[in-house]
Amino acid sequence: EPSADHSDGTHWIYTAEHLNLAPGTCGHGFNISYPTEHADTWIASFSPFFQGKDMEKVKQRLAEIANYVDKFYRALNIRVALVGLEVWSDIDKCPITQDPFTTLHEFLDWRKVKLLPHKPHDNAQLISGVYFQGTTIGMAPIMSMCTAEQSGGIVMDHSDNPLGAAVTLAHELGHNFGMNHDTPERGCGCRVTVDRGGCIMTPSTGYPFPTVFSSCSKKDLTASFEKGIGMCLFNMPEVKVLYGGQKCGNGYVEEGEECDCGELEECMNPCCNATTCTLKGDAACAHGQCCQDCQLKPAGTPCRDSSNSCDLPEFCTGSGPHCPSNVYLHDGHACHNVDGYCYNGICQTHEQQCITLWGQGAKPAPGICFERVNSAGDPYGNCGKDSKGSFAKCEARDAKCGKIQCQGGANRPVIGTNAVSIETNIPLQEGGRILCRGTHVYLGDDMPDPGLVLTGTKCGDEMMCLNRQCQNVSVFGVHECSAKCSGRGVCNNNKNCHCEAHWAPPFCDKVGFGGSVDSGPIRLAGNPNSCGPSTPNQPPPVSTTSPSRPAPPLPHSANIFKVTGLHIFSYQLKNPLIDFCR
């Protein structure tokens, strides 16, 4: 550790037993076949102990924490980029108490209302110097990455060693990505033994700190991406200068650079000069899915297929090396071939949630189950918790937005360590009874109840669950947006028309090459037969010509978090991912 006065670079060396560590639990819970994801992260930090401290040293510590997290996630093909950093030394901008649930609730509210509208980002994390009650050292909602309401978490800075907070942050971020705890019954493979730290998603941590992910975490992450979690992570962050100053060789193409393939010894890019960060010879590009053999691919070349029933495909524009930012159907739009509505690029349904909790064969229970059980306002039937942490009763119209009620499936829930089956028999007026199956799932102190119906789930015709209420999809303005597309396209999440193949954006009222102002053209110019279907799950076919050699991916390219080396993105970045409030 640095000495108290380490201006001369002096450090102290401690044995493990002398480290100031606080064992704790998560309050709640490889190489994948996707391109590298980019996560723009925003960190807010508050601690009364910061008063009178050197703010630059505090920021340096937070940057070190973020860099550790980036290093952990590289093994999952994810880069974590710190694009925003706030230190609250005098007053907290949201109520921060020793109650982790209340603190998480208040922080996520602050993020949605105050931070997100002014500083767009993918995920925010609060690093707090306040010690939480009990053994909880962090908390985060599961499968919430990219959502406005819940993409974030809270972390207690519990150790003198910044690695401690970094591991907790990586753990809570894992929950946002959809990773559950590594419990014995899951049979997770971890290449590091417990006595050497084990894996990051273990329910509780101690010394030595874990630094790797298990096989279960990798499977959970893949499953989340397949469900559409993390739709914001496919976009390249707009980087001008990283926090800490511009540097050729950090893997980010900054202002004044034509390319950046990392340090000289790690650069394998044939198009980029690693020493000068300039393009070689006649190269027109060096990075990106729309760059091949150091040249730009033609406009209309598919570069990202639609991934689910709410996603839209993207195509090269012919003017740049990167695939356009990921776009998807406007919130409230009907899902393609699925009985539901799109929200944040995902089609949430009661049926899918029942299968997640109870396994194959499970299905939603009749409406009377939701109404009877969720009107109780207790741990087994509710519409979530209020700001004071008390269970809220569901109004009849909102019953399908409370605790999920199912039928069929396995004998007991297939998720969680201590999942409890709650079966309710409801008598019917015409005789007989109906069985309702709910769950009380405890995934750890750091994960709120996953047995609640997910935001965006259909709760009636033209109705969707929002903030535990069943609301009309018209609140999103989806009908007004679709009306401007001339009946020849659909509205995307940027409120722009995605036109059919032979019609031109922005309003699909003139002949053109399809697509949108966001996605690139569907058809190759001069080739009227090159287009394919433009609806979700039906991406245009990729050319059967075998590509000679695509350009190597930008080393530091992940849509979820981006933190490179000891460099941190400044506040001005377009898509900060994590916000640390301390």
TrEMBL record:
Broad class of the protein's primary localization: membrane
Where does it localize? Membrane
Tell me any Pfam family this protein matches.
ADAM_CR
User: What positions does the entry give for Zn(2+) binding?
Assistant: 171, 175, 181
Domain called EGF-like: residue spans:
477-509
Instruction: Work out whether the entry's keyword set contains Transmembrane helix.
Output: yes
InterPro entries in alphabetical order: ADAM_Cys-rich, Disintegrin_CS, Disintegrin_dom, Disintegrin_dom_sf, EGF, MetalloPept_cat_dom_sf, Peptidase_M12B, Reprolysin_adamalysin
* Limits of the Disintegrin domain: 245-331
Which GO terms label this protein's molecular function in UniProt? metal ion binding; metalloendopeptidase activity
Q: According to its record, how does it sit in the membrane?
A: Single-pass membrane protein
What residues form the catalytic site here? 172
Disulfides per UniProt: 303-323, 481-491, 499-508
Which keywords appear in this protein's UniProt record, sorted alphabetically? Disulfide bond, EGF-like domain, Membrane, Metal-binding, Transmembrane, Transmembrane helix, Zinc
Gene3D superfamilies according to UniProt: Collagenase (Catalytic Domain) (3.40.390.10), Disintegrin domain (4.10.70.10)
Residue ranges of the region described as Disordered = 525-555
Q: What is this protein called?
A: ADAM metallopeptidase domain 12
Lineage of the source organism?
Answer: Eukaryota, Metazoa, Chordata, Craniata, Vertebrata
